[in-house]
């Protein structure tokens, strides 16, 4: 039997999710809007509405909710004039909660985690549907991946590994050539579980 290990917050620089953030991001349309903003870097409500095939007034409402929650902000540097509202995602990461910083609203945090799991399952389904096209050679381009690695690590070693992965992701993102014509938006899920759950 091993002793439980208390691990410090692995991402102390991440913003702690407020109840407003949890409530805003739990809505599926707002997650779609937030992902579209990341994909575009910045956008107007009309741009997002066109991308998602939804009414612009609905997108405007959801943008205000996301902004009030501190998840996005206006980008006036991209506006055509003072009345033009352009939005961008807030820099940096945020987390729902941890032992060091518990979630403010447990039910809302659980609802958001459930929604994020549903989004993940949808992504896995998309990859599984596409894989036969790739493995048979009908689609030579990589559009997704599914890989699994089994590791024997202590909890502390695992947290250090996760930090290093996030550091590499940040470095690659910062080095990305925005002018590259074959740029795509990739969703990357890193899934891990130890043998105690």
Tell me about this structure.
- This protein is mostly helical and 197 residues long.
- It has a domain at 15-143: Winged helix-like DNA-binding domain superfamily/Winged helix DNA-binding domain (Arc Repressor Mutant, subunit A, Orthogonal Bundle).
- It has helices at residues 19-26, 28-40, 45-52, 56-68, 106-135, 155-175, and strands at residues 15-16, 72-74, 87-89, 94-95.
- Strands 1-4 form a two-stranded parallel ribbon. The protein has a two-stranded antiparallel sheet with strand order 2-3.
- α2 (28-40) crosses α4.
- It is globular.
- The chain starts with 14 loop residues before the first strand and ends in a 22-residue tail after the last helix.
Q: How would you describe the oligomerization state of the chains in this entry?
A: single chain
CA-based gyration radius: 19 Å
Mind telling me the CATH superfamily name of the domain at 15-143? Winged helix-like DNA-binding domain superfamily/Winged helix DNA-binding domain
Level of helix content? 40-55%
What are the secondary-structure elements, in order, as H or E? EHHHHEEEHH
Write down the CATH class of the domain at 15-143: Mainly Alpha
Q: What structural category arises from helix and sheet content?
A: mainly alpha
The largest pleated sheet is described as: 2 strands, parallel
Contiguous runs where pLDDT drops below 50 for at least 5 residues: none
Strand order of the largest sheet: 1-4
SS elements, strand count: 4
CATH topology label of the domain at 15-143: Arc Repressor Mutant, subunit A
Mean pLDDT: 88
Task: Give the termini distance in whole angstroms.
Answer: 15 Å
């Amino acid at each position: 039997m091993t002793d439980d290990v208390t691990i410090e917050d692995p991402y102390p620089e991440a913003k702690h999710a407020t109840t407003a953030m949890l409530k805003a991001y739990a809505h599926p349309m707002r997650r779609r809007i937030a992902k579209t903003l990341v994909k575009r870097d910045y956008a107007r409500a009309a741009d997002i509405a066109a991308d998602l095939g939804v009414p612009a007034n609905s997108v405007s409402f959801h943008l205000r909710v996301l902004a009030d929650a501190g998840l996005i902000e206006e980008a006036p540097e991209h506006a055509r004039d003072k009345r033009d509202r352009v939005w961008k995602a807030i820099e940096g990461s945020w987390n729902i909660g941890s032992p060091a910083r518990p979630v403010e609203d447990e039910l809302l945090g659980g609802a958001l985690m459930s929604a994020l799991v549903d989004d993940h399952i949808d992504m896995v389904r998309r990859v599984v549907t596409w894989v036969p096209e790739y493995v048979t050679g009908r689609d030579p381009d990589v559009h997704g991946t599914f890989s699994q690695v089994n590791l024997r690590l202590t909890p502390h070693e695992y947290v250090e590994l996760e930090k290093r992965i996030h550091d590499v992701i940040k470095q690659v993102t910062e080095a990305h050539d925005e002018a590259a014509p074959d740029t795509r938006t990739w969703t990357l899920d890193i899934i891990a579980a130890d043998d105690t759950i």
